[in-house]
Amino acid sequence: MNKRILIISQHFYPEIGSAGNRIKNIYQLLTHKGYDVSVMTTDPSYPNKKIYEDNMFWDDITIENDSPKITRIHVSNRKYSRSLINRLFFFIEVAIKLIFKIVKDKHKYDFIYVTSPPIFIGIVGLIAKKKMNTKLILEIRDLWPESLRGVGVFNNRMILKFFGWVEKVMYKNADYIIVNSSGFIDFISEKAHLPPGKIHYIPNSAREYEIKSTSVSNEEYRVIYTGNIGLAQDVEFLKDLARKLDQNNFNLTVIGYGIKRKELKEFIQTEKLENVTLKSPLTRKDCLEVIRQHHVGIVSLNDKQVFDTVLPGKVIDYMTCKIPIVASVSGYSKTLIEENHVGFVSENREVDEIYKYIKYIFENPKERITMSRNCESCIRDNFLWEKNINSLEAILNETD
């Protein structure tokens, strides 16, 4: 009999963003390998519910939304508002409704696979493990609540201390822990005093069919930024870079969403930046196609220490499309970009230095071609789902 796996995730197809894409690929690849996989998730709502009224986002015919294997809960609260209280209520409502689904679920599973953040989904996973008397695989995609401190929006010591305790309980009670950044391994191991063998690294990755490039004209130099424009991404840096590129007649495309998008949009309009284009969110397929039409991809994170452990999904996306990266980051992301020679990094986050790197890539097409080839090599060696799913399958078969 094939092993049964229940995935519990707040994010899933057709949601855009790294989390939804990650769980979609895990679901598809495990199903293809013969595992009996079910998903418990929400109606799509990231970055907002309204965009999923457009049928273009429901573009994968291999996933049937009415499949009995996919259970979706409806959430009434709005999630991605500026209000931290609204987000908190959203997370709590999701957790409570998922718990009710678990209580009513009479199926037996060999594994519960739960992905966090938010931390409340991890709590749901612990309840599912106990109720269903099965093994729990806990996936950590971000260090939460540490990231709350990093973006500086919430500093209540008592509540953060409580969530820190919950975090440790989750780590200790999981049978296996999966992280999407190797930078998380030491942090989690030290915090919960876990043996290294309990934590497994499975990064965000690309699919084989996504790795390709497009011939781009050198007559019009094009730079791109994609993804979240939130509290972690340093919107002031993006503003300054947009102005600098516009002044020097470099074209910048931003495909973005998040709570700072409106601020960036107003800045572009106020400054009358004619060479900067702000696009609405696209499907992953369309977004990758637009990325391929550019020469350089931009990455930015603010300078808080917690983000030194993070590898933004856009780094993988740019390499998948074989375009060099110019980044305002430090830590793990900086090391990966520089060691694989897929781009340049300004750790001090100076716009003039970033512009210098962009200009250098433009003026040195041979170097750009070398970096493009390195991007593909790095993806094929380290960030290919068809390979990396084997690490998860090894965990699922460990007790055989």
UniProtKB/TrEMBL annotation:
Which keywords annotate this record?
Membrane, Transmembrane, Transmembrane helix
Where in this chain does the record put each Glycosyltransferase subfamily 4-like N-terminal domain? 20-204
The record's annotation in InterPro entries points to: Glyco_trans_1 (IPR001296), Glyco_trans_4-like_N (IPR028098), Glycosyltransferase_grp1 (IPR050194)
What are the transmembrane regions?
A: 109-128
Q: Where does the Glycosyl transferase family domain start and stop, copy by copy?
A: 211-374
| Molecular-function annotations in GO | hexosyltransferase activity
Give one Pfam hit by family name.
Glycos_transf_1
Write the protein's name: Glycosyltransferase family 4 protein
